[in-house]
Structures are given as structure tokens and as C-alpha cells.
Amino acid sequence: xxxxxxxxxxxxxxxxxxxxxxxxxxxPDASYGLVxxxxxxxxxxxxxxxxxxxATARSPVEPQFPAAGLGVLVFGLLLYLVxxxxxxxxxxxxxxxxxxxxxxxxxxxxxxxxxxxxxxVFLLIAVPLPALVxxxxxxxxxxxxxxxxxxxxxxxxxxxxxxxxxxxxxxxxLEVAQACSGLRSLVSLTAIAxxxxxxxxxxxxxxxxxxxACGRGAAIVAIAIPVAIVMNGLRIAAVGIACExxxxxxxxxxWHTFTGWITFVxxxxxxxxxxxxxxxxxxxxxxVDGAIAA
Length: 294
What we know:
The protein is mainly alpha-helical and 294 residues long. It is built from 13 helices and three strands, in the order H-H-H-H-H-H-H-H-H-E-E-E-H-H-H-H.
């Protein structure tokens, strides 16, 4: 039954998965999805034994064929039908994740589906955003990044004049294009923040109440958004500084790509520092508690 259900899903979504993979490989705006899908597969592989154990150790009070899992599966198939009839690629791709979750819940159990929640969330985030959302978010991100870069360049002593998303420098005009809006890094960093938040919540729960542990995780995800926006503005400022000090051609060369990777790595490090500050090691917590008691 499991094999037949897996083959049916693969047959139904063959074209969807092919188009999704093609967009991940060809579109710079969707390339983050390939990384997130890889993370989802890695997490799912690491949890395969726990999922199998949960499926074989089904609780006696749990029905053999959970109605909730069947309901999620049917809902996912209805989403697929709506996406096909409305020619909406995003809804069709979204339904793939829902169908996988419902199928796992139906053939295994609710515990197995809960273990696979994190990989499924990463797979969900890997689905490229619809054009309507991208167009609505990109321009504000471009303008925000331009303002941050303008303030940073002015603080560095470089004359700059901003006209919308264009920074006029003494040696060149630096345009914050759509690809430089920071949307890709924002989505990717939020996904990484979700993974860090989950690990932080798991580590905190043995010592703290569940609501405090979940609050720390939510704080990490919330901090990821301003960190990504500010770091992208600083990256654009770094490109402008290099343009003035070295060569205007660095705006589209290797330096531009290099600063993108550096700022993303720096953003991840900031999030890891935030996680470390929010989740104190047990030894440090005991030392603090002892000092308070003294």
C-alpha cells in the first residue's frame, strides 16, 4: 500500500516536480529553494529511523487508518485540483507538501508525521513565492536597502545622493536592482533561523516551561528578518565603498558576488550568536542561579 501510494503521488506530481527543479536550477530568484530542499531531504534521512519506529509503535488507542491524515491528504488533492483548474503553479506546488504530509500521517501515524514536520516545513519554504508576492515585497526591500546603504556610505565620508533605488556616487551610479533586494537571503536566512529556533526550543524545554522555550525560538525567527535586511544594505554599501576606492567595475564583478556570500555567512553567525545568548548552557545557568541565591 505504501509503495502504491508513493508511486501514485510521484506520477501525479511528475510534471510539477520537474518544473520546480528546473526553476531552482535556472532562476537566480529561486535558487535558494535547491539548498532548502537539500536540507529537507537531509533532515528526513536523519529522522528515517525515528519515523519508522513511530510507525511500527503505533499507539493502541490510535485508529489503524487515522481520519485526520486522510483529511489532510484529501485537502492536498483538492488544492492540486484548484491549482490545475486555475493554472496556479504556486498552489499546485503547495499541494505537493500537503499531500506528502497527509500520506505520511495516513499510512503511518500522527507521531511519524510530527517527526517529519521540520523537513516538510523546509520543503514548503523551498517552493518559490508567487510573482504577486515577489512584486509586492521586492520594491520595499530595494528602497530599504538603498536607505541603509546611503546612511552607511554617508557615515563613511563618501558623497552619495539617493534617487529611489539608485545611489549616485562620485564615480558611478549604483542601482539596487531587483536581484539585489535581499529577498533570496531573507527567505534562506528565515529558514535557517527556523532550524536554529527548533534546536533552541528543544534544548530549553528540559529546563524551562514550554511557552518560554517556544518564545525563544520565535524570537530567533523574528530577529532573522531585520538582520537579513540590514546586512543586505551593508553589503550594498560595501560594494559602493569598493567602487569608490578601487574600480567602478566591481559593481557587477566577483566582488559583488563575494560580498553577497560574506554577508550571508555573517548573518548566519549573528543568528547563531543570538541563539547562544538566548539558550544558556546548563553550567552557565547553574552558575547564574547560584550567584543570585548567594
